[in-house]
Automatic annotation (TrEMBL):
<dbReference type="GO" id="GO:0045454">
    <property type="term" value="P:cell redox homeostasis"/>
</dbReference>
<dbReference type="InterPro" id="IPR029032">
    <property type="entry name" value="AhpD-like"/>
</dbReference>
<dbReference type="GO" id="GO:0015036">
    <property type="term" value="F:disulfide oxidoreductase activity"/>
</dbReference>
<keyword id="KW-0575">Peroxidase</keyword>
<feature type="domain" description="Carboxymuconolactone decarboxylase-like">
    <location>
        <begin position="95"/>
        <end position="177"/>
    </location>
</feature>
<keyword id="KW-0049">Antioxidant</keyword>
<keyword id="KW-0560">Oxidoreductase</keyword>
<dbReference type="InterPro" id="IPR004674">
    <property type="entry name" value="AhpD"/>
</dbReference>
<dbReference type="InterPro" id="IPR003779">
    <property type="entry name" value="CMD-like"/>
</dbReference>
<comment type="function">
    <text>Antioxidant protein with alkyl hydroperoxidase activity. Required for the reduction of the AhpC active site cysteine residues and for the regeneration of the AhpC enzyme activity.</text>
</comment>
<dbReference type="Pfam" id="PF02627">
    <property type="entry name" value="CMD"/>
</dbReference>
<comment type="similarity">
    <text>Belongs to the AhpD family.</text>
</comment>
<dbReference type="InterPro" id="IPR004675">
    <property type="entry name" value="AhpD_core"/>
</dbReference>
<protein>
    <recommendedName>
        <fullName>Alkyl hydroperoxide reductase AhpD</fullName>
        <ecNumber>1.11.1.28</ecNumber>
    </recommendedName>
</protein>
<feature type="active site" description="Cysteine sulfenic acid (-SOH) intermediate">
    <location>
        <position position="135"/>
    </location>
</feature>
<dbReference type="GO" id="GO:0006979">
    <property type="term" value="P:response to oxidative stress"/>
</dbReference>
<feature type="active site" description="Proton donor">
    <location>
        <position position="132"/>
    </location>
</feature>
Length: 178
């Protein structure tokens, strides 16, 4: 499977809603192609399904600049680290951990190579997949301060939810086929 169309065709009957939602991902009023495809690509990386990642990457390659393509991958990578670290700080009972320096390099957040708000949108969507409340709050605040509409934030999280759910179904069906 190398296209989103083939991914949709592979969705089993029980996942018909996911197929329909996947069909409408590119239709997000108020979002640029960079926001839509960058979010989808970052979420495909975070969702870890090879077939879905290849299909989304192929489509995103045609819609994104090289800088935006790399930034989407960078958002998935840095949130893969940050979401674990900051979710730990949020969940651990000992409050002293939150006062300790993280000592983790996060240079890409300051210089993502694309519009910072778009990078924050990608990061928020990946943080939703990874379940880090602290990161979600932080990225949403930056987006709000940048003037990004709530509908755009909601659309990014909707993209994340669909991409992740499709990855779960593909993984499960592949496991059953083995």
């Amino acid at each position: 499977m190398s296209s989103i169309s083939e991914i949709k065709d592979a969705m089993p009957d029980y996942a018909k809603d996911l197929k329909l939602n996947l069909s409408s991902l590119a239709n997000n009023p108020g979002m640029t192609d960079q926001q839509i495809y960058g979010t989808a690509l970052a979420c495909a990386y975070a969702s870890r399904n090879a077939k879905l990642l290849k299909a989304i990457a192929a489509e995103a390659k045609a819609k994104l600049s090289d800088e935006a393509f790399q930034a989407a991958k960078g958002a998935a990578a840095i949130m893969g680290m940050n979401n674990i670290y900051y979710r730990f700080n949020h969940l651990v009972s000992e409050p002293e951990y939150a006062t300790m320096p993280a000592r983790l390099r996060m240079n890409i957040i300051g210089k993502p190579g694309i519009d910072k708000a778009d990078f924050e949108l990608f990061s928020l969507a990946v943080s939703a997949i990874n379940g880090c409340g602290m990161c979600i709050d932080s990225h949403e605040k930056v987006l709000k301060n940048a003037g990004i509409k709530k509908e755009t934030v909601q659309n990014a999280v909707r993209i994340a939810s669909v991409i992740h759910a499709v990855a779960v179904v593909l993984d499960a069906e592949d496991a059953l086929a083995e």
